């Protein structure tokens, strides 16, 4: 691990961001994270592939938004931005693209700041998705994202960390309300639909990290887009969402255990 880690890091518990980093092939994880990752992997062999599939979905979605002219992104639950992440994809297409990363995990935030030092069109915020107004206020303070213009709001693999009791639909509504017409929202979310027992087992194990996963139905995930226009092909198992090539789609796309979708805020008529 590099120097400069914040002192508030709890090394006695695994961290979701570091377990995820391990599954993606990153180096920003501790023994305690690797132990949990290996245990999860032995019980749920699809999970590492699911996480990679999630990153690939996010990259495809970012490219679709870039093609639609989006040049500023708010990525909440961004994780540790190694292994081909949003600003690399976005700035590879549009060098002026701006990206603000938000994560609850101090390790993810520390690494993000380190990796992004010197990239003036990116910013990093340490915040909880359950406090959307705080995220919006801090994002405005950074001065990178102009909410009077269309923005891409990315919630990849994070809303399932919000239990029903924390009212995720209201959180999503607050974020949508801050966005200008022409904005996009991207969501990927674990589901129990079409899932074998292993997803349910993974959910049980996730209770050991600081944040437990809530699996949701297609209808619930679709509801997170509110009245925005859901893009084709709708809310589908992630590999089915605009694959680069039909051959990229697994015979059983449902085995990755998560839905992906994107929606656009169309100017209300009248
Ligand atoms: C599975 S990773 C997804 C990373 C990235 N978005 C991707 O798709 O590749 C989930 C991330 O969400 C973060 N997270 C979990 N709960 C959160 C919350 N309430 N607010 C902000 N971030 C959260 C975790 O720390 C972790 O980094």
TrEMBL record:
Classification via SUPFAM superfamilies: S-adenosyl-L-methionine-dependent methyltransferases
InterPro entries membership: SAM-dependent_MTases_sf (IPR029063), SAM_dep_MeTrfase_SAV2177_type (IPR006764)
Pfam families for this protein: Methyltransf_19
Region (Disordered): 245-270
Protein name: S-adenosyl methyltransferase
Source species: Micromonospora arborensis
């Amino acid at each position: 691990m590099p120097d400069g880690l914040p002192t508030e890091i709890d090394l006695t518990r695994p961290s979701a961001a570091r377990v995820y980093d391990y599954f993606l092939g990153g180096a920003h994880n501790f023994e305690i994270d690797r132990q949990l990752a290996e245990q999860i992997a032995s019980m749920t062999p699809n999970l590492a592939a699911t996480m990679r599939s999630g990153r690939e979905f996010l990259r495809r979605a970012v490219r679709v938004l870039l093609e639609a002219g989006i040049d500023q992104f708010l990525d909440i639950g961004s994780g540790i931005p190694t292994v081909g992440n949003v600003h690399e994809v976005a700035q590879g297409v549009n060098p002026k693209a701006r990206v603000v990363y938000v994560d609850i995990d101090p390790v993810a935030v520390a690494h993000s700041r380190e990796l992004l030092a010197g990239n003036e069109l990116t910013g990093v915020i340490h915040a909880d998705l359950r406090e959307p107004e705080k995220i919006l206020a801090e994002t405005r303070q950074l001065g990178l994202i102009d909410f009077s213009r269309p923005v891409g709001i990315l919630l990849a693999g994070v809303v399932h960390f919000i239990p029903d009791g924390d009212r995720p639909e209201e959180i999503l509504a607050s974020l949508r309300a801050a966005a200008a017409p022409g904005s996009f929202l991207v969501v990927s979310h674990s589901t129990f639909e079409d899932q074998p027992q292993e997803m349910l087992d993974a959910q049980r194990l996730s209770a050991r990290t600081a944040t437990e996963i809530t699996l949701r139905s297609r209808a619930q995930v679709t509801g997170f887009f509110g009245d925005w226009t859901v893009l084709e092909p709708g809310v589908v198992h992630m590999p089915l969402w605009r694959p680069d090539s039909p051959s990229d789609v697994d015979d059983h796309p449902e085995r990755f255990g998560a839905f992906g979708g994107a929606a656009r805020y169309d100017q209300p008529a009248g």
